[in-house]
Structures are given as structure tokens and as C-alpha cells.
């Protein structure tokens, strides 16, 4: 794990809260996961950009909070063409919960990603999800945690920010990798981050662009750089808009490759 002195204060606070959270006392979670590779292939076959739309009530970088029912939000995203749904389960800084993920997974028929700060094996055993986020920067035993996640049936999405972290992820056996365009030291977003890392990702690895994707033009840019899918939160949730149409926000990004001028 990298030095916490390199983290933005908000991220350091999130990480500290994550250390204090345990797992569930009910024992190991096992999952019959919905295949993300099948979902991505179906989106491509349908002519949709594979978008993983994120249910994120709020965040340290958001302009506001969405109070909508998370299930209704997820259903609107799927209706707009989302290939999968990401659900924040971190409660203190993002307003998420495992219970919300469970309700969403019961309501939709696409893969659901649990997005949280998972640091150790016990924290895997909280809720059933199809994918599970593991952040290279915060995990000490990445290979062991990937193996433990797979034993339970999860498909680990391993997040990196630079080429060094990419090498760590590949050495640990990651086959679904997300490149986070947000620098956790300054919370700044730069789409060139993905463009600099993507050429070094093997062809047999599923590659996901994360953060900072705000428009159809951004979608096309990330796709041209090699993204198999895009993880989009704020642009779809539109925290500042309050009652913004989540379905329409999703649709605009999903259709970005079809030749229609949606900018």
C-alpha cells in the first residue's frame, strides 16, 4: 500500500473508515455471478456502448445528494441501456449500503458491481454481487484477495491509476482492470491517464475506463483509446441537477458510438 501522505484528505478519511469496518458474521458469501463478459458482448452486439452506470447517492467530489430510491435509479439506468450497474456500499462518505445493493440486484437482470474500499478478506463477506472492486493502491495482498474473491464467485475488477499499478495487477492475475482517471492524491481528473495506461494492457484483459467521463465525446475518446467498457457515475447521477433524468443521461452515453451527434 502506498503512503497515505500522498492521498487527498477526503480519500485518507475514507480509507480510515474502511479499516474500521469488518465483514458480516454470517460466514463466507458465495455468489452465482452474472457474467460481465457476456453482458459486454451483448451490448456490443446490440450496438450499445458498454456503460456501467453507477448508483452513487453522493461523494466527496459531488455537488449535491440524490435522495431518489436507489432501485428506481438503477432500473432507469438499465432502461437507458446500461450494461451493468455499479453500487456504492460505502456508507460514511458516499451514502451507500449493502442493503441497497441487494435490492438493486434483485430488481435488475444485469451484472452488479459492489464498489467499496475492500482491504482484507473478511470484507468480502458482506453482500452478494457479481463484480467486486479491488483498488491496487489500498490492498496489501492483492493476489490473495483476488483469489479469495474468485473462490466466492465474485468477478474482481482491479483498479489501477498508472503503469506501475497495472504491472502489480497483472502479476496478481487480474483479468478485469479499471483505469481510474482520478488522481487520489489531488482528486483531479485527466482522461490522458487512461490513454497512457491502455496501450500496455494485454488484449485478453477486459479494460474499463473510470472517472471523468462526462459527455458522448468523452465516451468516444475512451473507446478509441481501447476501453471495453466505461464506468460512469456523476455524469449520469447529475447530483447538481437534482431531478435530472437518469434514463436519458444513460441513453446519451450508450448511444455515443452510433454516429448520432449527441454532444
UniProtKB/TrEMBL annotation:
Cross-referenced HAMAP family: IGPS_A
Record's protein name: Indole-3-glycerol phosphate synthase
This protein's record includes keyword Manganese: no
Any one GO molecular-function label of the UniProt entry: indole-3-glycerol-phosphate synthase activity
GN (gene name): trpC
Residue ranges of domain Indole-3-glycerol phosphate synthase in the record: 29-247
Enzyme nomenclature, EC number: 4.1.1.48
Biological pathway: Amino-acid biosynthesis; L-tryptophan biosynthesis; L-tryptophan from chorismate: step 4/5
GO biological process, one term: L-tryptophan biosynthetic process
Region (Disordered): 50-69
Keywords: Amino-acid biosynthesis, Aromatic amino acid biosynthesis, Decarboxylase, Lyase, Tryptophan biosynthesis
InterPro entries, A to Z: Aldolase_TIM, Indglycph_syn_Halo_TrpC, Indole-3-glycerol_P_synth, Indole-3-glycerol_P_synth_dom, Indole-3-GlycerolPSynthase_CS, RibuloseP-bd_barrel
Reaction catalysis annotation: 1-(2-carboxyphenylamino)-1-deoxy-D-ribulose 5-phosphate + H(+) = (1S,2R)-1-C-(indol-3-yl)glycerol 3-phosphate + CO2 + H2O
Entry superkingdom: Archaea
Similarity annotation: Belongs to the TrpC family.
Pfam families from the UniProt entry: IGPS (PF00218)
Amino acid at each position: 500500500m502506498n503512503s497515505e501522505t500522498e492521498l487527498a484528505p477526503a480519500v485518507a478519511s475514507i480509507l480510515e473508515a474502511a479499516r474500521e469496518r469488518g465483514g458480516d458474521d454470517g460466514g463466507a458469501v458465495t455468489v452465482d455471478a452474472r457474467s460481465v463478459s457476456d453482458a459486454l458482448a451483448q451490448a456490443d452486439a446490440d450496438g450499445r456502448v458498454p456503460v456501467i452506470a453507477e448508483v452513487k447517492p453522493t461523494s466527496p467530489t459531488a455537488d449535491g445528494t440524490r435522495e431518489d430510491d436507489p432501485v428506481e435509479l438503477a432500473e432507469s439506468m438499465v432502461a437507458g441501456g446500461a450494461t451493468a450497474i455499479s453500487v456504492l456500499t460505502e456508507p460514511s462518505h458516499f451514502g451507500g449500503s449493502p442493503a441497497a445493493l441487494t435490492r438493486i440486484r434483485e430488481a435488475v437482470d444485469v451484472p452488479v458491481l459492489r464498489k467499496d474500499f475492500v482491504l482484507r478478506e473478511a470484507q468480502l463477506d458482506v453482500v452478494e454481487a457479481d463484480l467486486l472492486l479491488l483498488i491496487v493502491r489500498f490492498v496489501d495482498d492483492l493476489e490473495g484477495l483476488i483469489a479469495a474473491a474468485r473462490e466466492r464467485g465474485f468477478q474482481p475488477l482491479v483498479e489501477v491509476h498508472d503503469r506501475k499499478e497495472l504491472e502489480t495487477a497483472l502479476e496478481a492475475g487480474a483479468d478485469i482492470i479499471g483505469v481510474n482517471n482520478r488522481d487520489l492524491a489531488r482528486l483531479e481528473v485527466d482522461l490522458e491517464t487512461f490513454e497512457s495506461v491502455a496501450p500496455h494492457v494485454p488484449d485478453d484483459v477486459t479494460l474499463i475506463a473510470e472517472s471523468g467521463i462526462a459527455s458522448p465525446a468523452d465516451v468516444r475518446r475512451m473507446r478509441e483509446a481501447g476501453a471495453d467498457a466505461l464506468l460512469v457515475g456523476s455524469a449520469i447521477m447529475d447530483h447538481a441537477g437534482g431531478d435530472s433524468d437518469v434514463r436519458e443521461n444513460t441513453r446519451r452515453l450508450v448511444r455515443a458510438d452510433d454516429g448520432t451527434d449527441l454532444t
